[in-house]
Design goal:
Layout: E1 2-5, H1 6-22, H2 26-38, H3 42-61, E2 71-79, E3 82-85, H4 90-102, E4 114-115, E5 122-123, E6 131-137, E7 142-149, H5 151-154, E8 158-162, H6 168-175, E9 187-194, H7 197-207, H8 214-220, H9 225-238, E10 253-261, E11 268-275, E12 281-286, E13 314-317, H10 323-327, E14 334-343, H11 346-358, E15 372-374, H12 399-409, E16 413-416, H13 422-431, E17 434-437, H14 443-447, E18 450-457, E19 466-480, H15 487-500
Parallel strand pairs: 1-3, 2-6, 9-10, 13-14, 14-15, 15-16, 16-17
Antiparallel strand pairs: 2-7, 4-5, 7-12, 8-11, 9-11, 14-19, 17-19, 18-19
Helix pairs in contact: 1-4, 2-3, 11-12, 12-13
Length: 508
């Protein structure tokens, strides 16, 4: 019998979550580097350069890869010959580890979990509880597979109950374009096939913990149906031309992972869950000898890629820019922003719209006329930082507020990640506004452009409070211009044609 001690579980979970907050899995980051070297789209290559540079900066500075430090998912494989020295249950031990990790003073991680999800949605302040899955297995050890999953990619999870004769490939190729760029590709697709609806979904999440090995598989050749399917989907998904950040290019996924389970003769459940550019996971085992030893990777193993602004990037002074200036911006243009901007996410937008509808004044310091708003919920600063990692959140969630906000505020532009939906684009066109895209998965790099930060409103919302940022040369791309032309539509369509020599099929 192996004795597993309570403190070893708590310490190992806390250490692992800190570790993956700033260390990418090397297999993933090296796969992105290979994609970067192959990439022919300048915009996609620039996005991957930011992701690779950000990754190395985080490994060196031990700060989060992404401002969204994730919802914790843990798979626990408990050996049948294990005994516990503990006065907590395993779930309590794990959640205490999560609590300690997310409140660590040297590397504070953003608390994103809310309780009462159908009602008040109150932040739990320490990112608990974790989502925990257990298996009882032979042996005298306890194995953990642990991940911190970003909300942008998690929100793109898909589940379908196909007929037995339906094509999985057809469904995936039809579904991936509907996911847009909000899951921050290049990443991985985890696919669960079989079992029941919930079994397929859990398998899709679990298989994302595996190593990137598609190049090795391609080299040796497939040995079963699942490996054949992985290779087919890898090629065909990349041929869609969606590309890094959804703006068009050669690489959308760096691997496709599949796990299967027997299912009912009348059923074919298929779940698909993407991993984003902030892929964060680790495996460790407790054998009774103490906490898990997590050896840091060698920094020299990181790709030697350093992002630099393109020579044709336009410098923009946010204090003096006019709508006439904005009218000259074209989709795909690279801008370097300097000056003051406000921040705001879902909760702040809702409060602002409520104030407008009630005819009440906005909080002091919140003047949006001819200004830019950045969709971000930053990590708290540590040491001498002005602000912690501060990458963009998914812009489509703000679409429902956009028309009213532009109408009442006179806002000139918005900054976020991924595409805008039809309602957002229509509002941008109607009000002659503009939408700019920052790279998801480059949060620490972006934060280095922020020179000053202060909370100006709704402090009770925590990371969703409205901040005023003063930035210098913050890199962004024009994603939707004043005429409503979206690079997330034109870019993938252009690259689909280049790759396939054919017109893309319109997504319904």
């Amino acid at each position: 019998m192996t004795l597993i001690r309570q403190q070893d579980v708590i310490q190992s979970v806390a250490d692992a979550l800190q570790y993956i907050s700033y260390y990418h899995p090397l297999d993933y980051i090296q796969a992105v580097h290979r994609a970067y070297e192959r990439e022919e789209s300048p915009a996609a290559k620039d996005a991957m350069a930011q992701i690779l540079t950000n990754s190395r900066m985080c490994a060196e500075g031990k700060r989060p890869i992404c401002q969204d430090t994730g919802i914790v998912a843990i798979f626990v494989y408990v050996g049948m010959d294990v005994q516990w020295e503990a006065d907590m249950g395993v779930e309590e031990m794990i959640n205490e580890g999560v609590r300690q990790a997310y409140t660590h003073p040297d590397n504070v991680l953003r608390a994103s979990i809310v309780s009462d999800p159908a009602g008040a949605r109150i932040n739990t302040k320490d990112n608990t509880p974790a989502n925990i899955h257990y298996k009882i297995v032979p042996g005298d050890k306890v194995e953990f597979k642990l991940a911190a999953k970003g909300g942008g990619s998690e929100n793109k999870s898909k589940l379908v109950m196909l007929n037995p004769s339906d094509s999985i490939v057809d469904w995936v190729l039809k579904t991936v374009p509907t996911m847009g760029g909000g899951w921050c590709p290049p990443g991985m697709l985890g696919i669960g096939i079989g079992g029941t609806a919930e079994k397929a979904t859990v398998m899709a999440k679990e298989v994302l913990m595996d190593h990137v090995d598609i190049d090795e598989l391609r080299e040796r050749g497939p040995q079963n149906t699942i490996e054949e399917l992985r290779l087919e989907l890898m090629e065909k998904v990349n041929n869609l031309g969606i590309g890094a950040q959804g703006i068009g290019g050669l690489t959308t996924v760096v691997d496709v992972k599949i796990k299967e389970f027997p299912t009912h003769a009348a059923s074919k459940p298929v779940a698909m869950i993407p991993n984003c550019a902030a892929t964060r996971h680790i495996n460790f085992t407790l054998d009774g000898s103490g906490p898990a030893e997590l050896n840091p990777p060698k920094l020299e193993d990181w790709p030697q890629v350093t992002w630099k602004a393109a020579p044709n990037a336009k410098r923009v002074n946010l204090q003096t820019v006019t709508r006439e200036d904005v009218a000259d911006w074209n989709p795909g243009d690279t801008l370097l922003l300097s000056g003051k901007m406000l921040t705001g996410r879902d909760a702040a937008h809702k409060r602002l719209i409520d104030l407008y509808q009630k005819g009440e004044p906005l909080p002091e310091g919140v003047d949006l006329k001819d200004k830019f708003i950045y969709y971000v919920g930053p990590v708290d600063p540590v040491r001498d930082e002005v602000v912690g990692p501060a990458g963009p959140t998914t812009a489509t969630r703000m679409d429902k507020f956009t028309d009213a906000l532009l109408e009442h505020s006179g806002l000139m532009g918005m900054i976020g990640k991924a595409e805008r939906g039809p309602a957002g684009i229509d509002a941008i066109k109607k009000h002659k506004s503009v939408y700019l895209m920052a790279v998801g998965g480059a949060a620490y790099l972006v934060s280095k452009a922020i020179r000053k930060s202060r909370v100006v409103a709704f402090e009770d919302l925590g990371m969703e409070a409205i901040h005023e940022f003063e930035v210098e040369d913050m890199p962004v791309t024009v994603a939707v211009d004043m005429h409503g032309t979206s690079v997330h539509q034109t870019g993938p369509a252009e690259w689909f044609k280049k790759i396939n020599k054919a017109e893309p099929i319109e997504v319904q």
